[in-house]
Amino acid sequence: MSPNKFVYVANWKAYFTPNQAYQWAKSHKEALGTLSKNSPIIICPSFDALSIVAQEIKGTPTYLAAQDCSAHHAGPYTGQVLSTSLKEIGCTYCIIGHSEVRQEYHETPAQIAAKACLLLDNGITPIICIGETAHDYDLNRGAQAIEQQLTPILTAIKKENHALKTIAIGYEPLWAIGTSIVPKSSYLAQQLEAIKRLCNQHLPDYQALLLYGGSIDETNALTFKNIPLLDGILIGHASTDFQKLQKIVLS
Ligand code: PGA
To answer: What's the distance, CA 220 to chain centroid?
Structure first.
């Protein structure tokens, strides 16, 4: 993927059953492929729909991502999905550390770091999600929260020599996810600068894409495209509606 193109990550979360995901991909694959030629689009279905969507978008410029992966190699881990399986299915990206996963499963930074390392070893770009809570934001501790979340992950990545040297950081303040509230451009720029600094400090030989996510829709997407450090956006609920996704990409 060209580092100069603005990237769109469509995080479908658990909005679709496999059949709904299939119908979406089937109905829109041509229009999606045309859009993706100029603007890289990464579709992230739930695990149960990955293979079926992979078949539909095969041979098109649209990328496939998973929404999570196991922190383990193959073994006795009931309910887990391996990074090697994601590679086999055709994923080139994988979201990890999403706040919805962190909260639901009490995920630790060490587990997220292990996932990032396994993905990089399998040539899959991890989309590492971080973001401060509303409480931290109110106390003006957004930058510290980001640093606390990101540092152990970047440090763990640095310890090993991975096959792939590209990561993406999804900055998603918790108070902005699914709330219709988005950060002010000046605040976002400040947080992105802090993230960039941390990436340069810990992983100077990596390419680090910076993404923003949280309440992006067709009415506000343009604002984010004008933020200099931003390489792309993560779109949750709005990405399940193809017309909205199209408007976001074309805005
Ligand atoms: P949202 O979710 O766009 O529905 O707010 C974004 C995300 O969690 O990635």
So the answer is: 19
Nearest atom in ligand 1 to 179's CA: 5
Our answer on whether the CB atom of 237 is closer than 6 Å to any ligand 1 atom is yes
Across the strands, what pairs with 250?
none
Residue-wise DSSP of 187-239? HHHHHHHHHHHHHHHH-TTSEEEEEEESS--TTTHHHHHT-TT--EEEE-GGG
Residue 124 CA to residue 164 CA, distance in Å, equals 7
Position 131: which residue type?
G
pLDDT at 4: 79
Give me the pLDDT at residue 2, please: 60
Cα(240)–Cα(28) distance, integer angstroms: 11
Report the pLDDT value the prediction gives residue 199, as an integer from 0 to 100: 98
Q: How far apart are CA 233 and CA 221, in angstroms?
A: 8
Residues of the chain with pLDDT under 50: none
**161 Cα–ligand 1 center, Å:** 32
**How many beta carbons lie within 10 A of that of residue 163, not counting itself?**
9
Q: Which amino acids are annotated catalytic?
A: 98, 172
Q: What is the pLDDT of residues 89-106, one digit of tens each?
A: 999 999 999 999 999 999
